Amino acid sequence: MPLPDELAGMLQRLEDELSRLAGQAPAAAMKAVAALERLTRDTAFQAACTADADGLPPATLGTALGISEDKARSRIRHYLMNH
Questions:
Q1: φ and ψ at residue 77, rounded to 5 degrees
Q2: Where are the alpha helices (DSSP H) in the chain?
Q3: Where are the domains positioned within the chain?
Q4: Buried-state track 24-56, b at ≥16 Cβ within 10 A, e below 16
Q5: What's the predicted TM-score (pTM) here?
Q6: pLDDT value at residue 73
Q7: Of 30, 29, 36, which is closest to residue 10 (Cα–Cα)?
Q8: Which stretch of DSSP H or E encloses residue 3?
Q9: 9 burial class (0-12, 13-18, 19+ CB within 10 angstroms)?
Q10: What is the pLDDT of residue 81?
């Protein structure tokens, strides 16, 4: 499942900016990374809760993500347990 173009563009711009920042202001880059880690952890938890509540089969999720059913199941469990 491809990302929406707008989101893919934002992620690319973020990667470019963080790479630049890491070379110029490493403390600021680390602060940004910490914020992104919190954001991704919270978003992953929300997505896993929704997938679980909706009864999304791990096989379907695996296909959408390009991973195996077992890896999809493991990913959901990881996101639910690491929040």
A1: -60, -45
A2: 5-24, 26-53, 58-65, 69-81
A3: 5-81
A4: eeeeebeebeeeeeeeeeeebeeebeebeeeeb
A5: 0.84
A6: 95
A7: 36
A8: none
A9: exposed
A10: 94
